[in-house]
Amino acid sequence: MGLLSKFTPDVMRDNVYCYTPDVFKKLGVDRVVFDIDNTIAPYEMHEPTEEVKAYFAALKEAGIEAMLVSNNGPERVERFNRDLGLFAVPDAKKPSPTGINKCLKQSKNKGGAVFVGDQIFTDCLAARRAGIKCFLVSPIQPKENLFFKLKRLGEKPFVCRYRRKTAKNGDLLETQD
Ligand SMILES: [Mg+2]
User: Which of the listed residues 54, 93, 111, 169 has the most CB atoms within 10 Å of its CB?
Assistant: First the structure.
């Protein structure tokens, strides 16, 4: 895989709710590893909303194993995960693939796997290094400081690459039927 591909997501959607159990099932995916911050909740939201709980309940119901991998510390991850009860790896140091690999190794399911995150340089690269697909979402609450603005700017070529790649025939979700 070329360097550019490592930073180019397979799919981009507005939020996790676009990735329904049905979407995963059609792709033969039965394991989904999620980033937490800005992917399923804003930084300052300590506990999952009812909507988040319902989403993970629906995945479970469909036989899809959901797991969490966060660069945030154990306190944040454990509190957020208390009601969800998922396998979770804090302090994952993405773009290192270690956290994702841990999830995949211990998972009961052994079918297709996908990572869902909001950042190209950490989440997408970590997924690629672990050898799985990357489904991106728009960050729930983009930070507005200079560092994050520069990072968004850096991500742009890869977002454009995804758009070019999928302009004609659509992305993975649109071409699966
Ligand atoms: Mg994030």
Answer: 111
Two structure tokens written together for 11: 């799919």
| pLDDT of 177 over the 80 cut | no
Burial 83-108 (b: 16+ CB within 10 A, else e): ebebbbbbebebbebbbbbbbbeebe
The residues spanned by each domain of the chain are: 3-170
- Cα(22) to centroid(ligand 1), Å: 24
Helix (H, G, I), strand (E, B) or coil at 27: coil
Q: How far is residue 54's CA from residue 3's CA, in Å, rounded to a whole number?
A: 37
**pLDDT one-digit tens code per residue, 30-49:** 999 999 999 999 999 999 99
- From the CA of 41, how far away is ligand 1's center (Å)? 9
Coil, strand, or helix at residue 119? coil
Q: How far is the CA of 2 from the centre of ligand 1 (A)?
A: 24
Dist. CA 19 → ligand 1 center (Å) = 16
Residue from 11, 6, 29 nearest 97 by CA = 6
What are the residues facing 53 on neighbouring strands? none
CATH superfamily for domain 3-170: HAD superfamily/HAD-like (3.40.50.1000)
pTM across the whole model: 0.93
Q: 118 C-alpha vs ligand 1 centroid, how far in Å?
A: 5
Q: Which amino acid belongs to residue 109?
A: N
